[in-house]
Amino acid sequence: MGYCQDDKLVNTICDLYEKISKLESLKPCEDVDTLFKQLVSTCMPPNPNIDVTKMSKSIQEMRSNLIKLCGHAEGHLERHFSSILTSFEDSPLHHLNLFPYYDNYLKLSKLEFDLLEQNLHGFVPKTVAFIGSGPLPLTSIVLASFHLKDSIFHNFDIDSSANSVAARLVSSDPDLSQRMLFHTVDVMDVTESLKDFDVVFLAALVGMDKQEKIKVIEHLEKHMSPGALLMLRSAHGPRAFLYPIVEPCDLQGFQVLSVYRPTNEVINSVVISRKLAGDVGNGVIHDHMDQASELAGNCFQIHAIMNKKKSIVEEFTGSIEEQLS
């Protein structure tokens, strides 16, 4: 294991990478579940001494490969549980808590909604796009069910089978089946329709390395409507071994409004930005969003999760779980 530094944490991650990379399959089973749980628990604690961008080239390559393995494993896990949920003919969405990371999605979605509220200034988005929704579109489901109850969600994924499973999952819900649409397409081929969305969510694993991620962001900047919000997920510290990093400087053409770096069990950092106004001829400018932009000003804030915020989120999570039980 010559590519690993002497840092104990990095060496542990390298050891887990070696074991994960030798698995015959990344589909859910005891060995896969155990190794990825160990990986997540290793990367979870905040560590200010870990900056993956300053590590050696060999560790950077290992990290890139590990993120791809995590992405493939996450896809298998979501497909597995989406199939289990659809086997409940009566209200499969009432059993979402069977997914092992459902609590994390509840908390992350609540945080993302709070950030949206802070930056929309009373405006309720009519149309939301989620790019990279996958076979188990939990973020869209949670936001549509509990937070944005009047919004239309357009879910984009390049995998037709993932969309098929996801659409089947929400088909039995009389409300969500009308407000959640699924599109099988590469986001790089989506142009004019991107102007229709008030908010665009970009999944953490759309663009698994820096270059791919920046290409997607540049494409969104070119085609999103001025004033629309872009919500994307990043990672910080050791958690960057699990997901790609997006820095504020990567968001050319966007006004970065807020960066949220959780310190609890929510893994992803959240970056919210607003598409800057450009040539009016390039798209329809949302007047209400422009007013919100003026109210927001040029403020760039880095938030830490405070105990009060954490307790509010956990209280919300508990209430949702009671509704689902």
Automatic annotation (TrEMBL):
Question: Is the Isomerase keyword given for this protein?
Answer: no
Q: Which family does it belong to?
A: Belongs to the nicotianamine synthase (NAS)-like family.
Per the record, the GO terms for biological process are: nicotianamine biosynthetic process; phloem transport; pollen development; pollen tube growth
**EC nos:** 2.5.1.43
Q: Which UniProt keywords apply?
A: S-adenosyl-L-methionine, Transferase
Origin organism of this chain?
Eruca vesicaria subsp. sativa
Keyword Phosphoprotein among record annotations: no
Please give the PANTHER family that the UniProt record associates with this protein.
Answer: NICOTIANAMINE SYNTHASE 3, NICOTIANAMINE SYNTHASE 4-RELATED
Q: What is this protein called?
A: Nicotianamine synthase
Role summary? Synthesizes nicotianamine, a polyamine which serves as a sensor for the physiological iron status within the plant, and/or might be involved in the transport of iron.
Known catalysed reaction(s)?
3 S-adenosyl-L-methionine = nicotianamine + 3 S-methyl-5'-thioadenosine + 3 H(+)
Q: Which GO terms describe its molecular function?
A: nicotianamine synthase activity
